[in-house]
Description:
The complex is a heterodimer. In chain A, 35% of the residues lie in helices and 23% in strands. Chain A is α/β, with parallel strands linked by helices. In chain A, the strands form 2 sheets. In chain A, strands 5-6-7-3-8-9 form a 6-stranded mixed beta sheet, sandwiched between helices. Chain A has a 3-stranded antiparallel beta sheet with strand order 2-1-4, covered by helices on one side. In chain A, helix 2 crosses helix 3 (114-125), helix 3 (114-125) packs antiparallel against helix 4 (140-152) and helix 7 packs across helix 8. Chain A starts with 19 loop residues before the first strand and ends with a helix. Chain B is α/β, with parallel strands linked by helices. Chain B folds into 3 domains: 2-36 and 231-423, no CATH class; 45-153, abc type-2 transporter like fold; 187-227. Helices cover 67% and strands 9% of the residues of chain B. Chain B contains 17 helices and 8 strands. In chain B, helix 8 (189-200) packs antiparallel against helix 9, helix 10 runs antiparallel to helix 12 and helix 12 (275-301) crosses helix 13 (312-337). The chains are: A alpha/beta, B alpha/beta. At the A-B interface, helix 2 of A face helix 1 and helix 11 of B.
Amino acid sequence: MAQPSATVSEPGRSDAAPVLEARDLVKRFGDRVALRNVSISARPGELVAVIGPNGAGKTTLLSILAGIQRPDGGEVGHVPARIGWVPQQPSFYSKLTVAENLRLFARLEGCADVAGALDRMLEQTGLHDRADSLASTLSGGNRQRLNIAIGLLAEPPVLLLDEPSAALDPRQRERLWDFIFGLSAGGTAVVYSTHNVQEADRYGHNVIVLADGERLFAGSPRELERAVGEAGARDFEAAFVEFLRQRGH
Amino acid sequence: MRWLLLKDLRILSRSPLLVAMLVIYPIVIAALVGFAVTSGPDKPRVAVLNEVPASATQISLGGESVNVSKEAKPLFDAIHPVYVHSRQEAIDKVKSGDVLGALILPPDLTRRLEAATAGGGQPPSVEVLFNAEDPAKLRFVENTIKARVQDANSALAKKFTQVAASYIHLLATGGRFSFFGQTFDVLGLQRAEQILHGLGGKVPKGSAASMQLAQVTQFAHLARQNLGLANSVLDAVIAATVTLMFVTVLLAAGALALEREQNAFLRVVRGLVSRTGLLAEKVALAALCSLVVGLLLLAGLSVFVTLPWSRFALWVAALGLGALGFGALGVAMGALAREVRAASLMAFMASLPIAVLGLVPSGAVSSWLYDVVRGVSAAFPFKPTLEALKSALSHSGGVAGPLLHMAILTAVFTLLARLALRRFAVD
């Protein structure tokens, strides 16, 4: 059995036990193998970026970790009782207000203090002044904040974000990452998938590279750059592309 | 599940067009059916030349003396008669366009009618004159004549029915009956049932005689009930069932598909609500709304049609279980179609033929085709709902069978929907 991706973690947290750990995950859709023996782990406060070309298996990996799909092989261990999951598309009801959406999902998540969770998330996401606005009237950035807020209602120790910054403009993206950094600083482990490899470099403590359902790399962004040598010296994106090329992708 | 139900009701309340349709639809249907039931077409002007002598208006029918003029009154109520005194006057009025046509009743009409109903002689005939220059008018006149001839036939048949009904009433309740000057005392099923009940106490319980007596008592009770049928509420039953089907199927299919369209489905079923729980919630939502709409519709129809309010609990049971059956059918469609528009279209397109098949009467098609139609109808909740509602609104047949049928269909369609949910969230 392969070892979990004991990635280089944030200094000062590397000795902490993983809050999320999955080993040798396999997922098939008919004849197509979406994941082949993929392992991943995350420690408290760690930011783990999952990157790879289209169809690499990023969303499949996150949905298995979230409990949406069952793996055909491998095991998901060290799973906390609650994992926050934020799908790529805003997943809430456009005909309900921000507060009504948060209240509903807090109840569905089984939050003991629904009013408290609502206030906390409105405060944390800065959506207090839009609490009574219909979700359909929110901007793209605010919709994504509401989307993430729903995932955080149960105060999960692990948050899974599927391409959280897709469809956001640079300013909204910056605010989103400030928010996610705040969560990480508070001890929440964040695993996110992204197409934007610069986001993996800038915000990820560790990076997992997937291609055709296979984990090609697990380590820090600097380790990835070193792995390709001089060919990838220009920047992280160049190193990533070169890394895939060297591995035949 | 309670929170999801409240959420859906809140979303519904924020869709004014949908709410308006849910409120207006039953009112419009009730009004249309009500007017259709209670009002007839405009009366055409028809010249009438009656050559039947006043002394020949009485005929003998089934041993009873019948006044033909009196029985023909409904026929003349259906037209605006313009009485004329000669054949030429009738022709002139038709030519001038003053009347749509002319009806000439020959002097031997009643004599021939009497002979024909007794099983002999030539059938009576009437002469109809109309202007055939205008093809559209010709078609209208021909249709009108056919309809009026049917009216005349049904008027005659109605008289036969009345005579037969009086005998059936006598059989059901008992009483005195006179025939050729002699009077008989008829026991009747009602009195027979009372006597049998009285005897039941005197026969040892559990004995063979007691069981046989119970069967006879039950037969007398059922026979009396069925012979007592009088009200035809089929129009109300059909209107309520069709409304129930459309509202429930569309709402359930749309509400489930909306969960996917809003990307909320996976998030919801990750939490405290299971996939089966979500289906149950959608079925309950659609059934609740359509039950209210169905009851409103029946209440509206009761203005036009006499409905038995004393059997209200049975109305609710029939409508409620029917709504659950349609709700389950709706979620199955929603789970298969996955998108709101596709689900709505599927619900609409499937509902129409299901309703049409459910309304095909026996004898209207060949027997093998009717068996096929009956088999297909049995696979959907329309027919059993129709049967249950018919039983609830008139006293015909039992309600338990159709209710059980609907319960089974609810379970089957919910299971189908649950299977379809496996690929519901897959892109």
